[in-house]
Amino acid sequence: MKSWGMFVGGQYRPAASGKDFPVINPKNGSTIAKVAHGEQADVDAAIAVAQQASSTWAAYSGARRGDIMHKAAEILESRLPELASLEVDQIGRPINEMRAQLARLPEWFRYFGALARTQEGTVPPFDGHFLNYTRRVPLGVVGLITPWNHPLLILTKKVAPALAAGNAMVIKPSELAPITPMLLGEIMAEAGVPDGVFNVVTGFGAGAGAALSQHKGISKIDVTGGTETGKVIASMAGKNLTQVSAELGGKAAVVLFPDVDVQQGVAAALFASFIASGQTCVQGARLLVHESIHDQVVAEIVRRTAQIRIGDPLEKTTQMGPLVSARQRDLVEKYVAIGQAEGAHLAAGGQRPQGAPFEAGFYYEPTVFTHVKPHMRIAQEEIFGPVMCVIPFKTEAEAVEIVNDVDFGLAASVWTKDVARAHRVAQAIQAGIIWINDHHRIDASSPWGGFKMSGLGRENGIVAYQAYTQIQNIIVNLSSEPFDWYADDGQEKRYS
Ligand code: TXE
Predict the structure, then answer these.
(1) Which residues pair with 452 in a beta bridge?
(2) Fewest CB within a 10 Å sphere: which of 181, 248, 267, 491?
(3) Does the beta carbon of 205 lie inside 6 Å of ligand 1?
(4) Residue 446 confidence (pLDDT) above 90
(5) Residue 332 DSSP SS3
(6) Strands 387-393, 367-370: parallel, antiparallel or unpaired by DSSP?
(7) pTM higher than 0.90 for the full model?
């Protein structure tokens, strides 16, 4: 079995304590590797290495950083098959899903590499004989804390703008999926990112994660995870006035208006709810269906849900693998019991699949609740599993009210052919990402993040690049006239 050190300063190092921890394959509970168990001392060492390297990387021109990031995109592309199967082993998502997801990642390095190359400062007007300009400079060393559900995608969304803007970084990946993030480090090194700019400390949230979040040596912490984790990290970071960007929990709604083709609406709901076994922050966890098509939609969803092929995630024909961990499966079971106790109707799934290949892994059937009331816990809280809650509605206003009546505000999708209604509803929804006749769509250029308890700041797009910089304003006096405030020359003084 392979043992991994943590990737710091361009090489793999053991933890200061010499300890490691196992990475478990969720399809059968076997240990796929051991990884160094980083803690405070390892975070301190990684930050020191990053601080040393940061001035070198910051001094590279944007064009040079852009070239390196384009090279990184090419190398990443060539290593995708290996990365995809490792992601499957770490988190249990089907190989087809991981191939489709990882194939997109080079775009992030190309997009942000292009931004590094093309960013311009500004020349704001300044009254009088002055040249006034701004430049964006790196923040220094940033901390990136990532979850397990899309290990490389979420990391890439943070690494690409951070690198483009000239920062060094210390990454604390999820303890459940720490291997592929380190391989990204190898790719960066091969592309020409100087050693020490991209560092990974593997370990747990309460140890390495907390040490990173409260370290004075970082200028920003960027986390994706649960809302409670985000609050804890933000409060630790706040003590040092460290900037925080956070992409947290969600309870996205899929809204089907009466003019939606039933088959298309059903396909949309299944995709929104069950991809990644529902373990995505923008999962379409609530399906709002207009009462006029409700019964037809529900009947089709129940039929099609039972046909989803659960199995070995490395098989090409598998459509749903195990959940990431026994803990996550137990959480889903707990919420299914809560839903039943609350009086929702369990229309599909609701149990572990039976039989030999499933017993050793953390499998759970795709599950549909109907007759869900908007205030029920299963319709309010993030479950992070393959559970869809169907809620009927009568009017557009009622649909908007239900969509907004949760603490979260990450995403929603609106399905209708009525253009005016689509935009009206989209604009009334309190969420950061709204799709019209689509779901889960993402692009390197398109701002991604949440309203309300779903987070702070945005990933992707120019705003993400800018959020990894700080503005420096330079005011140049173009006058050669002497100026002496304290001169006893009898003149009335003006500072302008
Ligand atoms: O995520 P955590 P977990 C939600 C989802 C899930 C729940 C728990 O509801 O059921 O969170 O999942 C690090 N200081 N999402 O436990 O705990 C942790 O080590 C510093 C939503 O996997 O939020 C990991 O690297 N760091 C979500 C990262 O934070 C800490 C994605 C996320 O872990 C820390 C994943 C601490 N005190 C889970 N505690 C989304 N919105 O995409 C934890 N971490």
Answers:
(1) 408
(2) 491
(3) yes
(4) yes
(5) helix
(6) parallel
(7) yes
